[in-house]
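Input/output pair, single chain:
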Amino acid sequence: MTIRILVCVLILLFCTLGTVKAAEDDTTVTDQLFNGHMWQLLNASQKTIQLTGIQEGIRLCLSQIKEDLLVPPALMRSMQDSGVFERRRLLFSMQGVSGIANRIDVFYRDADNLAIPIIEAYRHVALILNFNDPRDTADDLARLKRKYKK
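Output:
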């Protein structure tokens, strides 16, 4: 009886070690961030949750920066009027989360983009959706591919 238990424990141990090794070799993570391989595993609801989390994180950071900097309202208006906050640089799109998700799906259809983290794909797609200059967008994509090349 104890031999059977020992064998079961050993089998369980080997299975656990195999799972840990598989997690270490996982292609769904680049620089500790989920990438295109993970994106392709998500269903539509999970993609919406992922993108909503990214947007809420951005909003939290922006509100914290605003509080920390204590920028006077007149200066903030002046900066907005001068174009410091250009629409094409915003990380949100008028197309909403579903529009961003659709464009990220297209982004990851290119196998060369799969190692790029989702947050970087989000930022790149936001540039496209917010009418960034096509040359700047192409340069951004080339930079991402270089940075995350396997």
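Confidence is low (pLDDT under 50) at residues 6-10, 15-25. The CA atoms of residues 136 and 142 lie 10 Å apart.
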